[in-house]
Amino acid sequence: MTVFTNVPRAIEKAMERSSAPSRRDFIKTSGFLVVSVAAAACTGTSTTTESAQGAGPYPDVDFRQVDSWIVITEDNTATYYVGKTDLGQGTGTAFRQIMSDELDMAYDRTSCVMGSTDVTVDQGGSGGSNALQRDGYPMRYVAAEARRALLDLAATHFGVPVAALSVRDGVVSVTADPDRQVTYGQLVAGRRINATVTGDSASSVRGEAPLKAVQDLRLTGQPLPRYDIPPKVDGSLRWAVDVKLPGMVHARNVKPPFAGATLESVDESSVSGLPGFVRVVRRGNYLAVICEREEQAIRAATELRATWQRPATAPFPSSENLFDYMRGATPTYSFDPRIVGTPDAAFGSAARVVEAQYEVPFQGHTAFGPAHATADPSDGQMTIYSNDMKSYGLRDGVAEFLDMPRDRVRVVWMDGPQTYGRTAADDAGFEAAFLAKEIGRPVRLQWMRHEETAWDTKAPAYVVSMRGGLDAQGTLVAWEFDARAADHHHVGYNEADTVLIAQLSGVRREPNRGRASAPSDMYGIPHRRTNLQVVGLPLVWETPLRTGNLRDPDGPQVTFASESFIDEVAVAAGADPVQFRLQLFRAESGDDDGFKRARSIAVLEAAANAYGWEARVSPRPVGTGEVLTGRGLAYAYRSQTVVAQIVDVEVNRRTGRVWVKRLVCAHDCGLVVNPSGVRATIECGMLHSLSRALYEEVTFDEEKVTSVDWVSSPTLRHTDTPERIDIVLVNGDPNPDRPDLPMYGAGETICKPLLAAVANAIYDATGVRLRRVPFKADRVLAALRAAGV
Amino acid sequence: MAVITLTVNGQRQTVDVDPSTPLLYVLRNDLELRGPRFGCGLAQCGACTVLIEGAAVRSCVIPASGADGAAITTLEGLATDGELDPVQQAWIDEQVPQCGFCQNGQILSAKALLAANPSPTDAEIREGMAGVLCRCMTYYRVQAAIKRAATLIADADRNAGSEVAG
Question: Which of A373, A475, A706, B60 is the most exposed, having the fewest neighbouring CB atoms within 10 Å of its CB?
């Protein structure tokens, strides 16, 4: 059995009926013989959430009941209910693999329901590349506990001890008499599994039954094809954009034309005569128009006459002046310096000091499909159909924003476009729910392209100054990283007081201090100083330059600086960049948490081997032809995952165009559940960073964002794709055969090093060092000409 | 309002809409198709692609009236008799999608590309697909899938040819 959608059938039916089903309806209509989810949910044993529980239709699912996670039907199929969301990296397939392994169930007799808050436990949705590293373990423990309980039932059934039983693919047999068989489905028919697990939250669930040794896992490690791909290819998948409810109307926002603008007046008569007009809804500076049909709403949003007043002072500098502004601004927050050794003394006695400054602009999510959600306000409840990767947070935030009990709000997670962090999907979910409650009808809201590109959350811009001190032998002995991040008031996920509609409505709180991050490496440098500061733009609220998490939120920026700089230092030391880094790894012999240093060495060596690296100093002699070629390397880790990347570039000295012709990646994320899924994630994540390296930059004048579509906000295209990509999955653990080899995260570490790898390769090809991202053709050309190349 | 007749995936359908309505909304909201999707509304990304008389067309910018009487194929209509189109099969074989939101445009553009050029070079694939965007960056896989699809189609044609000959 393969279920091609993550939407429970009962919810699909509910969409058709437009009436919110109770959890009992769900069980009744989905045809399960085991009324486990309902029963478990109604026991209300969750202590952490009791205060929010009332008489609403959507009580929290009890994560301590195995029946909340696994439902086995009489035909011996299992459905896994997990509180995660799959953003296209194949985590749903991986969940089925790890749970089926622990349960001893055949993979193709399982399916997975994810992230719908009324039927799945709260694992927080997605984020932090922790699908397996953190949240895979509760799934494995629950499945192991279910297996233990089922074997107990089988022992009773056969009248033999559990030790006398064997199980494979959901069929239990008496080992000494293999003809005596019973399926899991037969064992639980009409009953709950009735086992419990312990833990303070769904993220920390543990069971009595031990996990299997890695060597005993049969599905884990197999490159099984993703179950969600066929319906994405044949057109049968029902996406969040496809939700259609009886009586549903369409809404479009009217965004302020200038950042910080005040809405003075709205002339409703400018659109009230248009076909299909339903309502103009305003709340402070939030403005939307609702019509019966989608194209009518788009037209009305375009034609609605509104008067906006500009703010008294400029909301921000122009993008061309951003870095000067950041250098000159008074920080809104300064972290305490982090000091290792005695950097001042080390710099004082250094034989040579290298300095450089790097700049990374704001970069957006610019999701391929604009933010959207559909909200159904029927029967005193609120259902939001959304692709938001954190469906539970969306539920909690909307409940707070609308002042509704949480058990009257649910979020049904469905597939959607490109969700790599805090996207505008959060904002659209709140807006759709607000509008639906206002007009008492189901509302489908979708942002337009210009809204998405201008107003989604941005990865913070960085200015980084670096210094390195070399001793007489060319060893890096002192290192200083001094960063300023334009990240004051970094918005969180689904916060009722920072989502865009709240800001536009005038909700204010104390702005958060924002963040600035240091790079992650395992280099043994004896004297280090890290200074991190946050700066703010003049306009803090209601600004399109609001910062939020984007796929390793600060990693690409700070690693661009740190790994470009290590390359610059290697050049100054007259060293090959691979050898230089290996020496830095080996210079340290102290604590090696998770064998990260040993694994860094293994990964770097694996990348160099896969590439066919021959040692030499950069740059190579500049060629005489129109196209110059070079190679570049960079490395990083995140949490416990280690990555090294090497690129070959071609730089066209006539046009300035940079093409990454070959891309090599060595990657260690511990135990790999699905190598096919990990390889695809690595490949696509690297190209995402390549797009950021070559093209992406939010542009703005002194009143508005000016990058608003795919012409003004260019992205990587087919024509930019490398000719060849090689990915090596390494396991650098000193004992890769150990039975408890951990699963680490993938998806974000790969995004860190690539910007620096490309810059290092451009330097190798041309002898010209680019210290500002992105490496657009005109900037590359200007740099080459300035250097006489 | 105007009555417009469209032949979508082989079925004749009539809709009564404002004739300036972009075809995309008629397909999605009146005919309940899920393949074409809104990405930009500006013909810049390809999410809304449909085949009209075999040509890949951006349905977000052409008025429904412009397709009156035309034969339209959407992603849902590529399969024949329950058998996936070779392009779709190649997409599954190469495990192309990440989020998958753009893949309607990738697949239908590839279909049109291969119809015009059954054995494209790497450079022709890159150039031919340059206007179809993917923000999950599945480009490398898309290109591999197009090459695989070309082989699948050629093999199928050869087999069909030998059956006729036999």
Answer: A706
In a mutational test of the A interface, the residue from B139, B142, B147 whose CB has the highest number of chain A CBs within 10 Å is: B139
Q: What is the pLDDT of residues A552-584, one digit of tens each?
A: 999 999 999 999 999 999 999 999 999 999 999
CB A18 within 8 A of CB A442: yes
Burial of B156 (0-12, 13-18, 19+ CB in 10 A): exposed
**With bands split at pLDDT 50, 70 and 90, how would you rate the model's confidence at A6?**
low
The pLDDT of residue A297 is above 70:
yes
Residue corresponding to tokens 């290192």: A479
Q: Shortest Cα distance from B77 to chain A (angstroms)?
A: 9
B44 and A709 within 8 Å at the Cβ level: the answer is yes
Contacts for A249 with CB less than 8 Å, ≥ 6 apart:
A278, A290, A291, A292, A297, A439, A441, A442, A443, A444
Which residue of A226, A238, A368, A726 to mutate against B (max B Cβ within 10 Å)? A368
| pLDDT tens, position by position, A425-456 | 999 999 999 999 999 999 999 999 999 999 99
Sequence-distant (≥ 6) Cβ neighbours of residue B105 within 8 angstroms: B39, B45, B46, B47, B48, B49, B132, B133
DSSP A589: -
Instruction: Spell out the residues 6+ positions from residue A765 whose beta carbon is closer than 8 angstroms to its own.
Output: A619, A620, A622, A628, A629, A630, A649, A650, A651
DSSP assignments along A529-568, one per residue: EEEEEEE--S--SS-S--B--BSSSSHHHHHHHHHHHHHH
